[in-house]
Specification:
The complex is a heterodimer of chains A (196) and B (362). Helix content of chain A is 32%, strand content 11%. In chain A, a hairpin with a 7-residue loop joins strand 2 and strand 3. The longest helix of chain A is centred in the first third of the chain and has 26 residues. Chain B has a three-stranded antiparallel beta sheet with strand order 5-6-7, with no helix packed on it. In chain B, strands 1-2 form a two-stranded antiparallel sheet. In chain B, strands 3-4 form a two-stranded antiparallel sheet. The two termini of chain B are 38 Å apart. In chain B, helix 1 packs across helix 9, helix 3 packs parallel to helix 9 and helix 9 packs across helix 10. Classes of the chains: A alpha+beta (196), B mainly alpha (362). At the A-B interface, helix 3 of A face helix 1 of B. Bound molecules: iron/sulfur cluster (2 copies). The site of one iron/sulfur cluster has 14 residues of chain A, from helix 5.
């Protein structure tokens, strides 16, 4: 039989004891009501002023009205992947399988083929990313020695009606542009996927 | 004695109060979402629109109703199908019935008949309210029992424990009011609050019974089963008595909650904030304590009184919503501690002190 040490954590030592006024709730309740009530009055006042056309007051809500109003994406946001191209238009990817290997979600499938150019040697014959399984960790981007894959399209709306259409092939990935060129517009490739 | 005038007056007052309560409760479903949104720096429901018109999301009331009515009405596999359907009706019915004794104005004279602006001018109004409040728990308990679901049953049991504990406080705090105004009729209580205290202050219940007001409000919110005391429901995690309800049956429970909010607001107004009284407004017009007077038409005075009642009720609804969206929920043992160890002794002490003062002044 082995002895086990039991660590007793003294909870009361870590928790500050309530003083009398906190124990009778009421002053604290009033304080809470004061905070929420103040928010209500200030926001109501701002909403009213803006409703009658005085737009110089700050808005009464901090929210974005999502489909109508899009929040600017952070520059480093990891959004939908794209494959970059060489100046001559061929994919930069050399099918080294680094990204496929590092991907924790096993969602990249690459089939390599040989090329005659001795400086490149290999290129992807097909390159599929299953967005339905991707966890957007960005490891594939980190792992790539060729800067061939990036996550800078700014596209975050990836809903679709079928699992099949969540798998993006090499042509789609090559056709995507960086976010700066999309100008925050919803990308029409999404619409196409919804229809097909 | 029944005549055409009295019968139509009874119908008119009933229609008025039912319309008032149902409209206000309907609007409260929208107010709840909008007010919470504004308190939390959000915008709230505003997407429903008709012909491009949004009206700050007011159409959500209609959208909600359509949703409730068209959803599948699921009845679980239970032996008590009748009770299962009866329970939400009971909740709604008793909540609405209580409004029968609440005066929303003084009286009007039509064709020589004096018509009090109250559905039923019974002279034991307070007892009627107690009775209705204690049968209201049946709807909840039956819902839990007939659902054939242990979680729902536990919710129902929690509800009955909570409502019984807090009814005692409600009863005891009103004893103070009864002693001061020496009547059980709500109309008489409101009339008595038209006097002046020390020559300037309107003699509203809150000035006689500040502690009673506080206790009544806390216990009222607990009766209402809304958030700081929503242990019977606890929709987000502990699951309540209406777990098995769907469609409009669930809608009725939800609506009963809002009607009870209006009810608590009306009772607070009636007992502690002068009911339909407007400060310094007598039957003939304003009579100011500093000497001025301003005579007004009888109908104008009566209209102002009804509006005064409505405004006070709306303000209390706002306050109750503010409380509901501010405070976190009590734990069950805290709830019982608060009810039995704090509110009950305090209301007893309040009763005794009031009794002593009333005796001393006599
Ligand atoms: S972001 Fe992560 S999960 Fe997605 S494809 Fe790249 S490595 Fe795989
Ligand atoms: S790591 Fe880069 S070069 Fe290698 S297979 Fe992936 S995308 Fe292609």
């Amino acid at each position: 039989m082995t002895t086990r040490t039991v660590h007793v954590v003294n909870v009361s030592a870590r928790r500050r004891a309530l003083n009398f006024w906190e124990r009778i709730y009421l002053p604290e309740v009033l304080r809470g009501l004061w905070v929420t009530g103040r928010h209500f009055c200030v926001n109501m006042w701002r909403h009213t002023l803006r409703a009658i056309g005085i737009k110089s007051v700050p808005p009464g809500a901090v929210t974005y009205q999502y489909p109508d109003e899009r929040r600017p994406a952070a520059e480093r946001l990891r959004s939908l992947h794209r494959l970059t191209q060489r100046p001559d238009g061929t994919p930069r990817c050399v099918a080294c399988m680094m990204c496929e290997t590092v991907c924790p979600a096993f969602c990249i499938k690459i089939v390599a083929e040989e090329v005659s150019d001795p400086n490149i040697e290999k290129r992807p014959k097909s390159f599929d990313i299953d967005i339905g399984r991707c966890v957007f960790c960005g490891y594939c981007v980190e792992a790539c020695p060729e800067d061939a894959i990036r996550m800078d399209t700014g596209i975050t709306e990836l809903g679709s009606y079928s699992r099949r259409s969540m798998v993006l092939d090499i042509d789609t990935l090559l056709s995507l542009k960086p976010a700066a060129q999309n100008q925050g517009k919803p990308v029409d490739f999404l619409q196409k996927r919804l229809v097909s | 004695m029944l005549t055409t005038v009295t019968i139509s007056a009874a119908i008119a007052t009933t229609v008025f109060i039912v319309m008032f309560v149902l409209t206000l409760a309907g609007i409260l479903t929208w107010v709840e979402r909008k007010q919470s949104a504004i308190m939390q720096d959000r915008i709230g429901a505003n997407r429903a629109r008709i012909l491009g018109l949004r009206l700050w999301g007011l159409f959500h009331i209609i959208a909600d109703a359509v949703k409730m009515f068209t959803k599948e009405d699921f009845i679980p596999n239970t032996k008590h199908r009748f009770l299962f359907s009866l329970a939400p009706v009971l909740s709604l019915f008793f909540a609405l019935l209580t409004f029968a004794v609440i005066p929303f104005g003084h009286q009007i004279t039509i064709a020589g008949y004096l018509i009090p602006l109250q559905v039923a001018s019974v002279n034991v109004g307070i007892l009627f309210i107690f009775a209705m409040m204690s049968v209201a728990v049946y709807g909840v308990v039956l819902a839990g029992w007939s659902s054939n679901n242990n979680y729902a049953l536990l919710g129902g049991i929690r509800a009955s424990a909570q409502m019984i504990s807090y009814e005692i406080t409600i009863g005891l705090t009103l004893v103070g009011i009864i002693m001061i105004f020496q009547t059980l009729s709500l109309m008489e209580i409101v009339k008595a609050q038209g006097r002046l205290l020390f020559g300037v202050l309107p003699a509203w219940g809150i000035f006689y019974q500040p502690v009673g007001f506080l206790l009544f409000m806390i216990a009222g919110i607990a009766e209402n089963k809304r958030i700081p005391f929503d242990i019977p429901e606890g929709e987000s995690e502990i699951i309540g008595f209406f777990l098995e309800y769907s469609s409009m049956k669930f809608g009725m429970f939800m609506f009963a909650d809002f009607i009870e909010t209006v009810l608590i607001a009306s009772l607070l107004t009636t007992f502690f904030f002068g009911g339909w009284q407007v400060p310094y407004l007598a039957d003939t017009g304003f009579v100011f304590p500093w000497g001025g007077r301003w005579d007004l038409n009888v109908w104008l005075v009566e209209g102002m009184r009804v509006i005064s009642f409505i405004v006070k009720v709306c303000l209390f609804c706002w306050l109750l919503m503010l409380i509901r969206w501010t405070l976190p929920r009590f734990r069950f043992d805290q709830l019982m501690n608060l009810g039995w160890k704090v509110l009950l002794p305090l209301s007893l002490a309040n009763t005794i002190v009031t009794a002593a003062i009333v005796l001393w002044l006599d």
